[in-house]
From TrEMBL:
Entry protein name: Thaumatin-like protein
Annotated SUPFAM superfamilies: Osmotin, thaumatin-like protein (SSF49870)
Disulfide bonds: C32-C243, C79-C89, C94-C100, C148-C233, C153-C216, C161-C179, C183-C192, C193-C203
PANTHER family documented for this protein: OS03G0233200 PROTEIN
Keywords: Disulfide bond, Signal
Family, similarity comment: Belongs to the thaumatin family.
Signal sequence range: 1-20
Superkingdom per UniProt: Eukaryota
Keyword Kinase annotated: no
Length: 247
């Protein structure tokens, strides 16, 4: 009985001190009318979902991340994989494998997270178009406390993508598969925020990043677009939806 009481006291101390072990549940939902193959890159050793898997229209999958997890999610489209998990994707390919061990080839829409740990427990999250765009994407906090706002890019940017930024779908003539960032398209310092343009003061929005921002006001449009694009929440789970406006 004494040992049981000690365990209860210890559990109470952990809870009240804010260091109780907890986890964050990510639900990935595909509301697109086509299959997507989510890619997942973890910033530490806790790989989620094996790095990638197919997600049919209307399907969802839940993944659990430990405290302190950081990483990104993206959609791969137009994929073909054989029985060994080798193949390729029209957009977001990650080295020709189903289970990603590296990042996706841009342009891709990214959902980025740093899950809180310690006493503050604050999560940071965003949807980024810094590497370009391929699929509509949204992040909806579920529960939690704090700001906890919806983040996403729910517009069809491919439909308004300038000609010089377009990636065409090789299997569907005339269909835009993705939209490059200006950095990817031109590789120049003023678009990539490098060299003489490597600070917030010297790297300003361009007419290309303004196009992304106009289409998706809550998404990162270029490297220093922090003020209107980074969101926080504490103790939340998250619903990540591909093509959220079609659900």
């Amino acid at each position: 009985m004494g040992n049981f009481s000690s365990v209860l006291i210890l559990f109470f101390v952990f809870i009240t001190s804010g260091i109780a072990v907890s986890a964050t549940l990510f639900t990935l939902q595909n509301s697109c009318p086509y299959t997507v193959w989510p890619g997942i890159l973890s910033g530490n050793s806790n790989t989620l979902g094996g790095g990638g898997f197919p997600l049919a229209p209307g399907a969802s999958k839940q993944l659990t991340a430990p405290q302190g997890w950081s990483g990104r999610f993206w959609a791969r489209t137009g994929c073909n994989f054989d029985s060994t998990g080798h193949g390729n994707c029209v957009t977001g390919d990650c080295g020709g494998v189903l289970k990603c061990i590296g990042g996706g080839v841009p342009p891709t829409t990214l959902a980025e997270f740093t899950v809180g740990s310690g006493e503050s427990g604050k999560d940071f999250y965003d949807v980024s178009l810094v590497d370009g765009y391929n699929v509509e994407m949204g992040i909806k906090p579920q529960g939690g406390s704090g700001d906890c706002r919806y983040a996403g890019c729910v517009a069809d940017v491919n439909a308004v993508c300038p000609y010089e930024l377009r990636i065409m779908d090789p299997s569907n003539n005339g269909i835009v598969a993705a939209c490059k960032s200006a950095c990817l398209a031109f590789n120049s310092p003023e678009f990539c925020c490098t060299e003489a343009h490597a600070t917030p003061q010297t790297c300003s929005p361009t007419h290309y990043s303004a196009m992304f921002k106009s289409a998706c006001p809550s998404a990162y449009s270029y490297a220093y677009d922090d003020a209107t694009s980074t969101f926080t929440c504490s103790g939340s789970n998250y619903l990540i939806t591909f093509c959220p406006t079609r659900s």
